[in-house]
């Protein structure tokens, strides 16, 4: 499925060890969405040999899904809530007792015909971003950005790991979709469809 651009990241914070969502944070509202890469969704393949030839290929479930997000400027509040970092007097503290919460992540892009694409990973944890400092070159220096990675598993409640949908699919309802991604959260942001854009040639 071809996509154009990337302009939405919403993160649902799980209520402790449950799979109910207590808060949804619109990351891209204050920080910029640059990139998202998802790997490990495919099931691990197990080939059984018999009569000296491959006889059966087993493939069930998913692999070990990984998400890498490129973001411009995570806010201190987002770092605290999404990554479990202690913030005291404006100081972000990461240590042996830092425990990121379980989160659900909903990403938004656009299809070639202008429909909105939604991609969700349903239960995982994100880690504190790697840091890289670079000297400024020239009069307009590049902005150093954040890269956050995480690992995801199946939800215990229904065994789902990943959802993908598009706004022009028959029967699609954004409110119902977000309730699937963020179960139990009563005040879901952004449940109105973004305005459609003209198809791209």
TrEMBL record:
Organism from which the protein derives: Terribacillus saccharophilus
Source species, domain of life: Bacteria
Alphabetical list of InterPro entries matching this protein: Maj_tail_phi13, Phage_TTP
Name by which UniProt lists this protein: Phage tail protein
